[in-house]
Design goal:
The protein has one domain: B-lactam Antibiotic, Isopenicillin N Synthase, Chain (Jelly Rolls), CATH 2.60.120. The protein has an 8-stranded mixed β-sheet with strand order 1-2-10-7-12-5-4-3. A 4-stranded antiparallel β-sheet has the order 6-11-8-9, with no helix packed on it. The longest helix has 25 residues, at 168-192. It is of the alpha+beta class. It contains 11 helices and 14 strands. Bound molecules: 2-oxoglutaric acid (AKG). 2-oxoglutaric acid binds at residues 213, 215, 229, 241, 243, 249, 296, 298, 308, 310. This is feruloyl-CoA 6-hydroxylase. Its EC number is 1.14.11.61. Its cofactor is L-ascorbate. Belongs to the iron/ascorbate-dependent oxidoreductase family.
Amino acid sequence: MAPSFDDENSLFDFVVKNGNGVKGLVDSGIAKVPERYVQPPLERIDKLDAFSQVLSPIDLSKLDQPAEHDQVAEAVVRAAETLGFFQVVNHGVPIELLEALKDAAHKFFAQPPEKKAVYLKGVSPSPLVKYGTSFVPEKEKALEWKDYVSMVYTNDAEALENWPNHCKDVALEYLKASTMMVKKLLEILLNNLGATQDQDSRIEALVGQKMVNMNFYPACPNPELTVGVGRHSDMGTLTVLLQDGIGGLYVKAEENIDAGKMAEWIEIPPIPGALVINVGDTLQILSNGRYKSAEHRVRTTSMQSRVSIPLFTTPKPIEKIGPLPQLVEIDGVAYYREILFGEYMNNFFGKAHDGKSSLNFAQNTST
Ligand SMILES: O=C(O)CCC(=O)C(=O)O
């Protein structure tokens, strides 16, 4: 018989503190999600409420063809200026590697809870690896239906020594191949801002810290009441995301008053072999608002477990972030203040997901 999780504390201990995660909850045989996972009505995701707009993926191999380069670069810039989300193909990350990553994620989460719990915050043998569930469970009224393992990159040797055996080789290869792609995209985005001076060192600083996550969303008995991940934008520079074929990732197209369009959620359908790219808050800040960090969220599904594997690229915590001075001069105003990325990060991880409110922290209140 499934254990009772009517008592909030016993549920929290089981899922969060003891590391059983949502996977442990599902494996215990629950027929209905516990109250603590029930989202307020406005946060629930109605599948039928979203547009399924198949935005053509951008073929990055064309960047190497002089006749096509400018058109592709323009598509990247346009996507960063509008939705902040796009998919890429022929990105240089081997397709077999993408398959191996999804397998590795399934294998990691299929392990018994005690094998994963060794990486829980506070007991993990390495500060580079953290296993957990939801986003910041201590701060959330309703928990997110997701388990994850995070692997922070410092150097190859430390990654191979500390990252979990099931994931380390493939995650490291993914990080390297994807970072090369991210740098190419940043070159395009910075050129468009006229930021050509010291570009290589600027790009290195923008991707100075990297982290690969493996997310696991177990099949959920009540997808209509829960979220896999709540509405949020990423805090960093660019995120590369591998999703499997299950679907459920949504991005918000902002209201466009000039075009008479209301805000709407668009489903980002899985495209075999493609990777999703999304603009993070750091690029919105750097571009003084020209590039838009993408508000996104994830639905749960009752049919099958889903995995996704993001690579987050961010500046190092000691790095300053702020709008490019030449853009402030053109705009006559700095929409964001200059701050240490570490401060931005602490604020981001100190609160439950709440759309793009993370950006308020960097807002220049004197404008
Ligand atoms: O699973 C996904 O598709 C998105 C994951 C995500 O937004 C995150 O890990 O921050």
